[in-house]
Amino acid sequence: MTSFERRQRLLEILRSQPGVRVPELAALLGVSQGTVRNDLEALAEGGQVSRVHGGAVPAEDHQPASPSFSARARKNEAAKLSIARWAAELVEDGDSILLDASTTVCYMARYLRDRRRLRVITNGIEVARQLAANPTNTVVLVGGVLNSDGSSITGPLGEQFFQGLHAQRAFVSCSGFSLETGLTEVHIYEGQLKGRAIATANAIIALVDSSKFGKVDLTPFARCDQITQLFTDNNLSPAWIDQLKQSCLAFTVCAPDVANSFTPCATETNHYRIGFANLTETQPFAVDVRRGLERAAKKAGNIDLLVADNQLDPAAALQVSERFLSQGLDLVIEYQIDEQTGNRMMSRFQQAGLPVIAVDIPMVGATYFGVDNYRAGYLAGEALGRWVCDQGWQGQYDKVFVLEEPRAGALPASRIAGQLDGFKSQVGEIPAAKLAHINCGNTTEISEVETRAALKRFPDAHRIAILSFNDDAAIGALEAARRLNREQDVVIVGMGADRQMRSILLQAGSRIIGSTAFSPELYGERLVGLAQKILQSEPVPPAVYMTHTFIKAGANA
Question: How far is residue 214's CA from residue 210's CA, in Å, rounded to a whole number?
Answer without folding.
Answer: 9
